[in-house]
């Protein structure tokens, strides 16, 4: 069995604890099959998730399960469409939009149910509660350690596209091992794997050591093309505020002890918020912290997948924030592969000139 | 008169005199007095449902603009009983976007929202609300309550209102599941919001809650009779007008005037049936209308009702979906109301609700108005179409925009409706 998840708010610790290989579903774009099931004014990611679900039906790999988070109206409807027109077992994870104690308590119960459903999909029988909790704590500690390593490697690279790939690398590593193997190998196991994949400290050369440092932010990067375009144009991406960047390598340390589902729920709901989370000022405070952690930022690039409502509204808030901080802001709206478009590169080059002159 | 007043400006960039003048008028008591006097003279002292609604809305507007009661902005699916129960006036910017479209103010408001950075690909009901706020003609909110279900745009746009107004923002996070645990989670949030509002906003108290819940339950009972009479063939109420009153359905539960409004409406409908004075003569087809309508001047309803003798027999947003609320356990009752919304949860809930309306109102065809940017509604179109077609009910997706006339073509809409009605004719579906 392999679990594919659609959102960084779905804790990977749960499938790891259940011995189920899992990774984020990073669809590579939308296919024509989505046209007749998903409206044309849905974002490329939601359409790509539907396309992926249809593709999975044709793969020979048995036991694929898709977990879709209720990230937005579009993803909720994609979940409906996959259930009604697809042939892949699909689970829904109801992620709250706030992070207060009530929401954390509710999310813990959602995660507990998610674990039960996953276990039933995997083995057809429920795992004992005590055993599951014990294994979940082990998975939490394991992921804490491995994410630390991945974050350190990401920090060592100034190539933004390579930093995006770090999340893939971590998930590939987890997919190859069961929890016991990964525990035995410890952090050294991941380091060895990263080196074998070409992530060698000191050799992760940046194209743009001297470029003006910027933050790449937004809802979701879709693919690595925007990050590659920023590298190619000569920016130094100081922080990647995306599901693929810092938000994908969180939460950090989970508070130890007690109910692991509650601890996990709290850690996930209180990680660096994505634009979907609706806690007053939380998103802007997180951006402010990024500026503090990365002194010398000269501008912000906001990447927005077309028709992403969360992004459209969030952009206005970020725009106000950037104005207050006297930081130039560039918004790029696009689809999969937008970073390869000549138009995008022209705009990035113009923005680079603006920053260099300023 | 108002539309002409606003059309003084040929370009949205020419000054802001109308906004200031309108705001001045809205904040003066004599404005409301004058309008009420005019309405009373027109009706010769006999109240119709329209006058009850106009009087109720005007009273609340006066209270809101003159700061006689605190104003709480909410999204469309927050139960307004909560706001009335605290002694505040609920204000739904998206509902007022519809009014703005009918008064010809929407283009300017939309232009202003775009100048703030809001994309044209967002739902225009929210963009217009943001623009109206930017124009300074909406009352000042004391707090904002949003719900997380059904509409991303609503909660995100009201976040902007709360930030700019500097008032508290409350998020009611509606669970996707329907078990007891989920209901308690939502009920606790509702209680917390109510208690925190009482602490933070002067003039609010929970003393009004019982009255608001009882008013809501009373209105609900009458409204069920209204729905019963609307099942009559031919339809006793013009659908284009019923679609206008969706605004009342969305924003007035818990108000003192709502039971009277539905009572008067019921009397009107019963009289219409009794006297056979049906608004669409020789009714040929009966349609169910999903989602909202275009609120600016559009020929499509005249085309349907006059040229094609076709009634919109019922509307999706007029369907009553919640049980009575226990005044002694109001938080859980309101939670249940929110969670009962058939647009929330798996799509099968909406499909079953639509099917029950098709059966109850003897529907021949279903039209879904695909409001540009309304992901939650448009996203359900394909499964809905497949479901209805299997049962022999034709389904039309009518693309358009309810507020931004510039983003919608009436000629194209008429062509599509015309083809749809011809298809109904060819199937021999004549009521």
TrEMBL record, chain A:
Keywords: Iron, Iron-sulfur, Metal-binding. GO terms for molecular function: hydro-lyase activity; iron-sulfur cluster binding; metal ion binding. It holds the Pfam family HGD-D. Its cofactor is [4Fe-4S] cluster. InterPro entries: FldB/FldC_alpha/beta (IPR010327). Belongs to the FldB/FldC dehydratase alpha/beta subunit family. This is 2-hydroxyacyl-CoA dehydratase. It comes from Candidatus Fermentithermobacillus carboniphilus. The lineage of its organism: Bacteria, Bacillati, Bacillota, Candidatus Fermentithermobacillia, Candidatus Fermentithermobacillales.
UniProtKB/TrEMBL annotation, chain B:
Pfam families: HGD-D. GO terms for molecular function: hydro-lyase activity. It comes from the Bacteria. Belongs to the FldB/FldC dehydratase alpha/beta subunit family. This is 2-hydroxyacyl-CoA dehydratase. Its cofactor is [4Fe-4S] cluster. Gene3D superfamilies: 3.40.50.11890, 3.40.50.11900.
């Amino acid at each position: 069995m392999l679990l594919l998840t659609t959102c960084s708010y779905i804790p990977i610790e749960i499938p790891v604890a259940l011995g189920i290989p899992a990774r984020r579903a990073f669809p590579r774009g939308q296919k024509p099959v989505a046209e007749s099931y998903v409206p044309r004014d849905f974002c490329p990611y939601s359409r790509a998730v539907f396309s992926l679900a249809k593709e999975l039906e044709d793969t020979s790999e048995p036991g694929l399960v898709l977990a879709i988070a209720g990230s937005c109206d579009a993803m909720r409807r994609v979940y409906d469409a996959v259930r009604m027109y697809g042939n892949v077992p699909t689970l829904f994870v109801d992620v709250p939009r706030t992070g207060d104690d009530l929401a954390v308590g509710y999310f813990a119960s959602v995660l507990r149910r998610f674990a039960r459903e996953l276990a039933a999909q995997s083995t057809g029988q429920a795992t004992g509660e005590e055993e599951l909790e014990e294994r979940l704590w082990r998975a939490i500690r394991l992921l804490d350690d491995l994410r630390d390593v991945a974050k350190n490697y990401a920090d060592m690279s100034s190539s933004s596209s390579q930093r995006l790939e770090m999340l893939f690398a971590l998930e590939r590593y987890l997919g190859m091992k069961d929890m016991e193997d990964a525990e035995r190998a410890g952090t050294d196991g991941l380091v060895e794997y990263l080196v074998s994949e070409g992530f060698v400290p000191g050799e992760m050369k940046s194209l743009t050591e001297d470029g003006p440092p910027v933050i790449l932010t937004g809802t979701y990067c879709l693919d690595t093309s925007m990050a590659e375009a920023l590298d190619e144009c000569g920016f130094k991406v100081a922080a990647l505020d995306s599901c693929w960047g810092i938000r994908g390598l969180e939460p950090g340390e989970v508070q130890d002890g007690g109910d692991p589902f509650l601890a996990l729920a709290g850690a996930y709901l209180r990680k660096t918020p994505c634009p979907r989370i609706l806690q007053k000022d939380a998103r802007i405070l997180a951006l402010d912290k990024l500026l503090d952690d990365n002194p010398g930022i000269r501008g912000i690039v906001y990447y927005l997948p077309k028709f992403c409502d969360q992004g459209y509204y969030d952009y206005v808030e970020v725009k106000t924030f950037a104005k207050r901080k006297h930081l130039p802001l560039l918004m790029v709206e696009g689809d999969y592969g937008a970073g390869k478009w000549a138009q995008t590169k022209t705009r990035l080059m113009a923005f680079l000139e603006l920053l260099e002159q300023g | 008169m108002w539309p002409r007043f606003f059309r003084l400006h040929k370009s949205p960039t020419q000054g802001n005199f109308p906004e200031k003048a309108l705001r001045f008028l809205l904040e003066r008591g004599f404005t409301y007095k004058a309008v009420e006097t005019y309405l009373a003279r027109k009706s010769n002292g006999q109240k119709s449902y329209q006058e009850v609604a106009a009087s109720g809305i005007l009273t609340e507007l006066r209270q809101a603009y003159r700061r006689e009661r605190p104003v709480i902005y909410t999204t469309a699916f927050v139960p307004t009983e909560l706001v009335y129960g605290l002694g505040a006036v609920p204000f739904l910017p998206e509902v007022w976007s519809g009014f703005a479209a009918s008064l010809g103010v929407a283009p300017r408001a939309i232009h202003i929202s775009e100048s703030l950075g809001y994309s044209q690909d967002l739902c225009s009901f929210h963009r217009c609300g943001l623009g109206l706020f930017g124009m300074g003609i909406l009352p000042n909110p004391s707090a904002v309550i949003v719900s997380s279900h059904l509409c991303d745009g609503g909660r995100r746009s009201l976040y902007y209102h709360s930030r700019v107004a500097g008032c508290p923002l409350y998020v009611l996070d509606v669970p996707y599941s329907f078990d007891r645990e989920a209901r308690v989670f939502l009920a606790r949030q509702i209680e917390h919001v109510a208690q925190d509002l009482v602490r933070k906003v002067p003039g609010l108290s929970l003393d009004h809650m019982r009255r608001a819940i009882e008013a809501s339950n009373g209105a609900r009972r009458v409204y069920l009779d209204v729905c019963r009479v609307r099942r009559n063939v031919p339809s006793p109420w013009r659908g284009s007008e019923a679609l206008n009153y969706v605004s009342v359905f969305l924003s007035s539960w818990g108000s003192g005037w709502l039971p009277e409004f539905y009572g008067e409406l019921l009397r009107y409908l019963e009289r219409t049936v009794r006297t056979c004075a049906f608004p669409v003569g020789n009714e040929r087809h009966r349609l169910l209308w999903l989602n909202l309508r275009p609120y600016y001047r559009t020929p499509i309803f005249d085309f349907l009702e006059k040229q094609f003798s076709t009634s919109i027999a019922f509307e999706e947003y007029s369907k009553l979906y919640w049980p009575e609320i226990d005044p002694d356990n109001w938080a859980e009752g309101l939670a249940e109301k929110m969670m009962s919304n058939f647009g929330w949860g798996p799509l099968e809930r909406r499909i079953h609700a639509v099917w029950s309306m098709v059966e109850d109102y003897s529907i021949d065809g279903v039209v879904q108005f695909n409001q540009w940017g309304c992901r939650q509604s448009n996203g359900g179109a394909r499964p809905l179409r497949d479901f209805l077609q299997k049962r022999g009910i034709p389904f039309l997706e009518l693309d358009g925009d309810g507020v931004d006339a510039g983003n919608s073509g009436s000629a194209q809409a008429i062509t599509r409706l015309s083809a749809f009605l011809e298809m109904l004719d060819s199937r021999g579906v004549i009521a």
